[in-house]
Specification:
With 215 residues, the chain is α+β, with helices and mostly antiparallel strands. The protein is built from 8 helices and 12 strands. Strands 1-8-3-9-6-5 form a 6-stranded mixed β-sheet, sandwiched between helices. A two-stranded antiparallel ribbon has the order 2-10. Strands 4-7 form a two-stranded antiparallel ribbon. It is globular and about 45 Å long.
Length: 215
């Protein structure tokens, strides 16, 4: 409906991974800190990076609960034209400290996670965010995908925390964001039953939901 062609790439089901595979594809610290769903999510995105490198050209990565903004394709083309030649990642959807100068409580998450960047504007619609999270919608170049595969080949923590906090990754974001998540069903967190967790939007700009984030 948005005029975006796509190819579905099968995700990795973390719960179906053998102990041998988990040991091979995650770090020791990762095995202590990550749920199997987190490992599966990490490896799923790694598959997309491998696909990008093999294709030798940028690809857009969408998770399956993404909702696109109106005029998505035209606005994305405009943002891509504003990027420098050495760009690695353009976030078209994100959470965290991404709305310039209006970080609110997101600043606590940013400081705790580390990997912050110096915010700067490239144009009216493209900027380098302070500390983004979220992998539900992003464009990645072949060079950027190769950086991630080389420097973070094994699952060590949430894929967005690791990837978007990487030093030397030329990462930018669209303003306003062009995609948000529904925050519906998820198998990444630790609670299969989330009915007891209060559900409300904690950040209207990114659409982040408390129950999803807590899980």
């Amino acid at each position: 409906a948005a005029g975006v062609g796509f190819e579905r790439i099968a995700a990795t089901d973390g719960k179906a991974l053998s102990r041998e595979t988990i040991n091979a594809e995650s770090t020791r610290l990762g095995r202590l800190l990550m749920t199997k769903g987190m490992i599966g999510c990490y490896l799923s995105h790694r598959s997309c990076w491998e696909h990008c490198v093999a294709a030798g050209k940028p690809v857009i990565v969408f998770e399956d609960d993404v909702v696109l903004a109106d005029d998505f394709a035209a606005r994305l083309e405009s943002a891509l034209a504003e990027l420098p030649e050495d760009w690695d990642v353009l976030l078209v959807g994100a959470i965290g400290a991404v709305l310039p100068r209006k970080y609110g409580a997101n600043i606590l998450h940013a400081v705790g996670a580390g990997g912050m960047r110096w915010p700067r504007w490239l144009s009216e619609t493209v900027h380098a965010p302070l500390r983004p999270f979220g992998t539900h919608a992003y464009v990645i170049s072949a060079a950027g995908a190769n950086k991630l595969l080389t420097r973070a080949p094994r699952a060590s923590y949430h894929v967005d925390v690791v990837a978007w906090g990487m030093r030397g990754l030329n990462l930018f974001a669209v303003h306003p964001l062009l995609a948000k998540q529904t925050h519906g069903d998820t198998t990444i967190g630790g609670f299969e039953d989330r009915s007891w967790i209060p559900k409300f939007t904690i950040d209207s700009y990114t659409g982040a939901d408390f129950a999803w984030a807590w899980n």
